[in-house]
Amino acid sequence: MVLLVHPIACSHSNFIYHLRLFITLKHSTMGNEFTTVIQVSKQFLSSEEIRQSQESSLMKDQQYQNYVLKKQEVMRFLRFLIIRLKFPIRVLQVTSYLFQRFFLFNSFRKYSSYSHEIAVTCLFLSIKMNDCIRKSRDLILVAHDIRLSPPLNSDDAVKDESDLTHILAENKVDEQRKKVLYFERLILECIAFDFRHNNIEDYLIKFSKTLSLHPQMGYLSWLISVDAMMTEVILKQSPHVIALSSIVLAKLLYPEIFTDKTVITELDSLDLKYSKFYCERLQIYESVNEMMEFYMNKNQLPNSFLFDYLPKDLKFNDLVINLKLELPNHFDIPPNKRKAEATINKDDLFYKERDYEIGKAGTILFVYNND
Amino acid sequence: MDAFEARIHFSDMLKILMPSQQSVTNCTMYAIKNRHLQEDFHSVILEVLDAVDLNVRINIFQFVDSLIASGSAIEGHPFVENLAQDLPVILEKVVPVNNSSKAFVNIHSSFHILAHISHELQLKDTKEYEKKFNLNETLDEETTDPLKRSWKFLLQQKALLHSERYASEENAELNPESLTEVDTDPKLRLYTLSEQQILARMEADRERHKRAKEKLWMVTRESYSLSLNEFENINDRFSSLQDEDFKELRELKRLVNKSFNGRSQNSEYKRLKA
């Protein structure tokens, strides 16, 4: 299905660069060269595809570690911003997806200093996709205040959004708004104008009710699913897989942390049939594995919503490491099948740093799939 | 501007108050800016409510809601205590006790506004009262709390409206002319709306509904973590998987497979001849 046609035709200076990478058809009229590109929206990517994309956007300049640190900082900033503006937490899902997707296809070295502006733009797009409309001005004003005086702890009282310690001047707000509009266009191109999305939260509640989970277990699964939104899992797995993986991880964690016998007895008799929920064993294994890696990183824990809820004296890192060691046996997955196989074309421009000149000099057809 | 001038200006603002966000915000900002005159402004609100028609009265009630929300957010909570104390009086003016069915025109909008004020002032039983309102039940308990007294009055009025409507449906068909009929009693004239006012009211209600929808998604949290209470609210929104959900899951799996299968193909980009 064709989503958008962007017909601008004129001479194109970078055309030769693309010629080397694609089977190309050159056409010129009256001295002008015309180019048409079809861009497929790939909502979900494999680990190999993510690594391949990061090769040009992050690895090239040895920026990966800086990106990881910046991402942690931005996720914390987004947490404060979402809560201060009273948004439902589900908006974090699309926000984080867009932010991570942006830095797959764009150089981190070039855009790292705009990370917070990009995060605000992702949130702005996400709230539109979730029908929680606010003006970009409101986001910019509160974001500025949070950047300059962030809350110290997650236990801090939430200030009213009008209670601003640092007020941004009107001309600066206009400047920021222009940046948001600029990045909005870049992000939309990165996702091929594909606005389809399903909420993890909706599936999680429906699954937990179908499984008649105890409310405590439901709450634990929900906190895990919110944490999962901050990981690369959302680039790889569909929302229903993440929802079920959160329940699976909660089932593993609960007896290790809490002692409520009613819940533990209920969990013992809980029979999780992945196929009933249209999920595959390997998908769940990969997701749970990656979520555990998030909890194993001590630097990530201040960002975790689950961590706030856990007993303060719990050695959570050690607990997760032990559980992770047992994970392949738990899922009964043979060693040779612990990673999904995929072959990708490394020369494909899809995995290269995005060139926004294409849209200026030719036509891009954004399509949902390549049928 | 001295106190007398501010009073006159505030009174004029209230008399022409519209239900739009801009109009209500302007009026709220003016009141907050002159919060040292809160006693004066409070009496102006009560006076103006007696002098205007029902359309403007509901707009003023909307403004009261906005003023309570803004007042609660600033130091000293100006206006909040006085307005909360006089809520039953204000509500009696907005939904007047009268035999005419026209006096009930503000009841539904008042319900939404009162529910919002109750959330703002953290009244624990709000959900229960909202349920009672929808079931046309009354509140029997005796209370001195002004917010609870307001609910008691509103629930009483709703039950009365329900019984009157039920009776009128049984006895006679509604005469459309009676809707625009002008009452001879000058007091009752304030409750009578002209055709133009009815149209304006429809537009205002649409605007109010739109604004209510804008705020429906808001989640107020005390700290920067996620509470069990928030989860329970989300939990109430969905039931277990139904046939439709299974269809959706099947479709989602197909979509995911498509994205996965696409990986084996050589190129996500294809260049065509223009």
TrEMBL record, chain A:
<dbReference type="InterPro" id="IPR006671">
    <property type="entry name" value="Cyclin_N"/>
</dbReference>
<feature type="domain" description="Cyclin-like">
    <location>
        <begin position="76"/>
        <end position="189"/>
    </location>
</feature>
<dbReference type="InterPro" id="IPR043198">
    <property type="entry name" value="Cyclin/Ssn8"/>
</dbReference>
<dbReference type="InterPro" id="IPR013763">
    <property type="entry name" value="Cyclin-like_dom"/>
</dbReference>
<dbReference type="GO" id="GO:0016538">
    <property type="term" value="F:cyclin-dependent protein serine/threonine kinase regulator activity"/>
</dbReference>
<dbReference type="GO" id="GO:0006357">
    <property type="term" value="P:regulation of transcription by RNA polymerase II"/>
</dbReference>
<dbReference type="Pfam" id="PF00134">
    <property type="entry name" value="Cyclin_N"/>
</dbReference>
<protein>
    <submittedName>
        <fullName>BA75_04574T0</fullName>
    </submittedName>
</protein>
<comment type="similarity">
    <text>Belongs to the cyclin family.</text>
</comment>
<keyword id="KW-0195">Cyclin</keyword>
<dbReference type="InterPro" id="IPR036915">
    <property type="entry name" value="Cyclin-like_sf"/>
</dbReference>
<feature type="domain" description="Cyclin-like">
    <location>
        <begin position="202"/>
        <end position="293"/>
    </location>
</feature>
From TrEMBL, chain B:
<dbReference type="GO" id="GO:0070692">
    <property type="term" value="C:CTDK-1 complex"/>
</dbReference>
<dbReference type="InterPro" id="IPR024638">
    <property type="entry name" value="Ctk3_N"/>
</dbReference>
<protein>
    <submittedName>
        <fullName>BA75_02412T0</fullName>
    </submittedName>
</protein>
<dbReference type="Pfam" id="PF12243">
    <property type="entry name" value="CTK3"/>
</dbReference>
<dbReference type="InterPro" id="IPR008942">
    <property type="entry name" value="ENTH_VHS"/>
</dbReference>
<dbReference type="InterPro" id="IPR006569">
    <property type="entry name" value="CID_dom"/>
</dbReference>
<feature type="domain" description="CID">
    <location>
        <begin position="2"/>
        <end position="155"/>
    </location>
</feature>
<dbReference type="Pfam" id="PF12350">
    <property type="entry name" value="CTK3_C"/>
</dbReference>
<dbReference type="GO" id="GO:0032786">
    <property type="term" value="P:positive regulation of DNA-templated transcription, elongation"/>
</dbReference>
<dbReference type="InterPro" id="IPR024637">
    <property type="entry name" value="Ctk3_C"/>
</dbReference>
<dbReference type="InterPro" id="IPR042326">
    <property type="entry name" value="Ctk3"/>
</dbReference>
<dbReference type="GO" id="GO:0045943">
    <property type="term" value="P:positive regulation of transcription by RNA polymerase I"/>
</dbReference>
